[in-house]
Design a protein that fits this description.
Layout (H helix, E strand, L loop, with lengths): L3 E5 L4 H12 L3 E6 L2 H11 L6 E5 L5 H15 L4 E3 L15 H28 L1
Helix pairs in contact: 3-4
């Protein structure tokens, strides 16, 4: 049985490269991002050598979207073995120029998103 990995922030950068590396090593891959075009591009690239992949558009700061991501993964691959909490956001500005809205969005994606994804996937990981 193949292991299954979810990579949040898998549409580009480190997340994309992680997804490609794990896929090349035979894992089932679920690419998660907020941008559908990025998801489609990475999934298409993976499918050149590994058909056990799909993508899910998901904002990791939204509990319902995270739950749907995990459930779709479990329904498709019967479990989750690896979670790469790579989703992040960064506003490059001086602190005095950073709005409270930008600060809250950073915390929601970078911290709350990690919490929500880990919490949602943990029951399935503990079963295996």
């Amino acid at each position: 049985m193949y292991k299954t990995a979810i990579i949040t922030g898998g549409g580009r950068g480190i997340g994309k490269e992680t997804a490609l590396l794990l896929a090349k090593n035979g894992l089932n891959i679920v690419v998660c991002s907020r941008t559908q075009a990025e998801i489609d591009s990475v999934v298409e690239e993976i499918k050149k050598f590994n058909n056990n992949t799909f993508g899910v558009k998901c904002d990791v700061s939204m509990p319902l979207e995270v739950d749907q991501l995990i459930q779709r993964t479990v329904d498709s691959f019967k479990g989750v073995d690896i979670l790469v909490n790579n989703a992040r956001i960064a506003f490059i500005s001086k602190l005095v120029d950073t709005s409270e809205e930008q600060w809250n969005k950073t915390l929601d994606i970078n911290l709350k998103g990690t919490f929500l994804c880990t919490k949602a996937v943990l029951p399935f990981m503990l079963r295996s």
